[in-house]
Design a protein that fits this description.
GO terms for molecular function: flavin adenine dinucleotide binding; oxidoreductase activity, acting on CH-OH group of donors. Its cofactor is FAD. Belongs to the GMC oxidoreductase family. This protein is an alpha/beta fold. The chain has a domain at about 35-45 and about 60-180 and about 225-330 and about 440-445 and about 525-590: FAD/NAD(P)-binding domain (3-Layer(bba) Sandwich), CATH 3.50.50.60. Helix content is about 30%, strand content about 20%. It is built from 16 helices and 26 strands. The strands form seven sheets. It has a seven-stranded mixed sheet with strand order 8-9-20-21-22-19-25. It starts with a helix and ends in a 6-residue tail after the last helix. The relative contact order is 0.17.
Length: about 600
């Protein structure tokens, strides 16, 4: 009897110990994930909550693939009335110091590890770029600038202006701030006004010609506030967010006239396979919010795309659509380096000059000055502002990359004093395409943006570089920099040297502005397209010739809205969520 009692006590102690371990793990996950509805993908069970059928199999009113800039506000909105499952391939941003703080902006981009919030890719044009791999999407790795689209853009895409003007403030109240203007940004403002980019419109979210100070998702302490924080507005009882959940394909029922989305197949962080399904309601939907790289890629992996492309990789065709992956565009950017004899405060984009010649002038300063930045492994990313430099495809050899890394580690600390005046093309006319490399969703597809393929884009770059040089040579900017007015050739020579990339330098690249534009083109991550309205989706963003499948992200854009698109993509998530609820429930919608 005594032995039995002793064994029973031991068994109870073991249960308590296991329960404690489970509680501690749960506490750690809650601390890391912030919200109780965020869980690891491996916790998914096909027999958990939200089942609307008589079986034990779980089903959802909406499955959102991609918890990014559009996906988070969309999920928060839809969950007010319906069950929502969000599947995000990355982790959470809350405990990642490289994501959370402005001072580490460039280090987050330079992190090329598999667990990084930033996944680098190289376009066939030779420009290194990045895509987000984290809950909150691009709002976790961008420069933070927040502005609205101009009214003409809203008209062109056919959105309800009244609902748009209700949706922007919903975002702004939660995560957007007025910046404390850095001296570099103040000097840019004065320089822009000196050269006639006027009037001065002060602090405003609106897209208006002249010089303005925009909003930022960095607060006064330099802490970043991402789209993931918009999930605080969700109904926690109706929302499940799975992180480290990589969706491999959309599942279709092909027995009807049009293929009907039924759910998705995904893998968790341990590589185990899962399936998640929609309810039987005809209005339930799978919504793709994977971004301009991820959404066309996933569509094709699911069997929706150009027939020849699918056959090439032996993908079973669900629906032929020749336009999936077409019309890819990226706003080309070039920078002019301005050296300083003293350290400069770190600043990202706060001031912008909106010109009438189709270019925007912005600035950043002081990045790359920390020992952590210069000495850490950046791969082939230039360290000056965390910006992504160029490398011709034929020269992307392993030896060249290793030589670049070695050379960059030896760059002296003084080389990074100063900042950049940035010139970006608005609404580029040059477009390209996206193609699958293989059937592994973890691998980047191949993308061509065809920078400066249209002569008008090249001419606008030339005009923009001239304008940037005038700003630097203006009285008020040179007074701030405390230097003599540099000549155009001197500015360009410094910029070519500071660009720290592997582009072969042409003998005339500081005398020919056209050549300078081509040789020093970089990205500011405003790429878009691949699933255009009228070609891949209709005006309600439903995928053409399918049922229960929708796309809500920048892949549907034929132009990047405003000077910086994040504000409009955030608004789009809220806007489309409200629109879906009101169409489905009318006045009964709780938004």
């Amino acid at each position: 009897m005594a032995a039995f009692v002793g064994a029973l006590k031991l068994f109870i102690c073991l249960l308590l110990w296991l329960n404690t371990l489970s509680s501690l793990q749960g506490a750690r996950d809650f601390s890391e994930f912030r919200y109780p509805f965020i869980k690891r993908a491996s916790s998914f069970s096909s027999s958990s909550s939200f089942s609307s059928s008589n079986t034990d199999e779980v089903s959802y009113d909406y499955i959102i693939v991609g918890g990014g800039t559009a996906g988070c506000p969309l999920a928060a909105t839809l969950s007010r009335n319906f069950s929502v499952l969000v599947l995000e391939r990355g982790g959470v941003p809350f405990s990642n110091v490289n994501v959370s703080f402005l001072r580490n902006f460039h280090i987050a981009l330079a992190d090329t590890s598999p667990a990084s919030a930033s996944q680098p890719f190289v376009s066939t044009d030779g420009v290194i770029n990045a895509r987000a791999r984290v809950l909150g999407g691009g709002t976790c790795i961008n420069a933070g600038f927040y502005t609205r689209a101009n009214s003409d853009f809203i008209k062109r895409v056919g959105w309800d202006a009244r609902l748009v003007n209700e949706s922007y403030p919903w975002v702004e109240r939660q995560i957007v701030h007025q910046p404390k203007l850095a001296r570099w940004q103040d000097a840019l403002k004065d320089g822009l006004l000196d050269v006639g980019i006027s009037p001065y419109n002060g602090f405003t979210y609106d897209h208006v010609y002249g010089t303005k100070v925009g909003g930022t998702i960095f607060d006064r302490f330099g802490r970043r506030h991402t789209a993931a924080e918009l999930l605080a507005s969700a109904n926690p009882k109706m929302l499940t967010v799975l992180v480290y959940a990589t969706v491999q394909k959309v599942l279709f029922d092909k027995t009807g006239k049009r293929p009907k989305a039924m759910g998705v197949k995904f893998k968790d962080e341990n590589g185990n396979q899962h399936q998640a399904f929609l309810t039987n309601d005809r209005r339930s939907e799978v919504i793709l919010s994977c971004g301009a790289m991820g959404t066309p890629q996933l569509l094709m992996l699911s069997g929706v795309g150009p027939k020849a492309e699918l056959e090439r990789l032996n993908i079973s065709m669900v629906l032929h659509n020749e336009f999936v992956g077409k019309g890819m565009a990226d706003n080309p950017m070039n920078s002019v380096f301005v050296p300083m004899t003293r350290p400069v405060e770190q600043s990202l984009i706060q001031t912008v000059g909106i010109t009438k010649m189709g270019v925007y002038i912005e600035a950043s300063s002081g990045f790359g000055q920390s020992q952590d930045s210069i000495r850490c492994h950046h791969g082939i990313l230039s360290a000056e502002i965390g910006q992504l430099s160029t490398l011709p495809p034929k020269q992307r050899t392993k030896e060249a990359i290793e030589a670049f890394i070695k050379g960059k580690k030896d760059i002296p600390h003084e080389a990074f004093k100063g900042g950049f005046i940035l010139e970006k093309i608005a609404m580029p006319l040059s477009t390209g395409h996206l193609n699958l490399v293989n059937t592994n969703v973890d691998d980047n597809p191949s993308v061509t943006f065809n920078y400066f393929g249209h002569p008008r884009d090249l001419q606008r770059c030339v005009n923009g570089i001239r304008m940037a040089a005038k700003v630097i040579q203006s009285d008020r900017f040179t007074n701030f920099a405390k230097c003599d007015k540099p000549t155009m050739e001197k500015l360009l020579n410094m910029s070519v040297r500071a660009n720290v990339n592997l582009v072969p330098k042409h003998t005339n690249d500081t005398k020919s502005l056209e050549q300078f534009c081509k040789d020093t083109v970089i990205t500011i991550w405003h790429y878009h397209g691949g699933c255009h309205v009228g070609k891949v989706v209709n005006h309600d963003h439903r995928v053409l010739e399918t049922r229960r499948l929708r796309i809500i992200d920048g892949s549907t854009f034929s132009e990047s809205p405003g000077t910086n698109p994040q504000g409009t993509v955030l608004m789009m998530g809220r806007y489309m969520g409200v629109k879906i609820l009101r169409r489905r429930l009318g006045k009964a919608a709780h938004v």
